[in-house]
Amino acid sequence: MSIVQEMQYIQNWSKSLLDICDTLEKIIDSWNSTFPENHPLNSDFPGLAPLTLEEIASAVFTSDWEQSLYEKTASNIPFNEEAHQLMHEFKLYTEKLENAIGKLPDMDWKSTKHRIKVIRLLAERGLKLSTLPTE
Questions:
Q1: pLDDT in tens, 111-132
Q2: Per-residue pLDDT reduced to its tens digit, 36-89
Q3: Sign (positive/negative) of CA torsion 57, 58, 62, 63?
Q4: Within 13 A of 128's CA, how many CA atoms are on the CB side?
Q5: How many CB atoms lie within 10 A of CB 43?
């Protein structure tokens, strides 16, 4: 693969990942605004979060962004194809960019919002790198 082709791939992955980060940030902001900071369902609650990002996205999509339904949905989160696909692409593009331009540090102990911000920075770096002259 030529350097030009590789840069095009990096640019496409970066743009897609930035769009996904935008969506995930809206999901997290909507979710967290429903629960006080010290509520266990808040995604930034200290300690281990009780729900994964995919579960939160599933609850939001299943509730059709209706915040009054989040807590009810959180107790019985159905599988949501849109959330599953979003998380699959989030992981895929993150992995592709990490392999192309550098690995991210271990962020298991960081909040969900912080992890999304760090991955956004990776995508922004990829976009910047992909627009540099190749000569």
A1: 788 889 999 999 999 999 888 7
A2: 878 878 877 655 567 888 999 999 999 999 988 888 887 788 899 999 999 999
A3: negative
A4: 7
A5: 20
Nearest alpha carbon to residue 51 among 21, 69, 73, 23 = 73
Tell me the pTM: 0.87
Burial of 28 (0-12, 13-18, 19+ CB in 10 A): buried
Residue 65: C-alpha distances to residues 29, 30, 131 (Å):
11, 8, 36
119 contacts: CB under 8 Å, gap ≥ 6: 17, 21, 90, 94, 104
**110 CB-near residues (< 8 Å, 6+ apart):** 118
Q: Are 42 and 36 in contact (CB under 8 A)?
A: yes
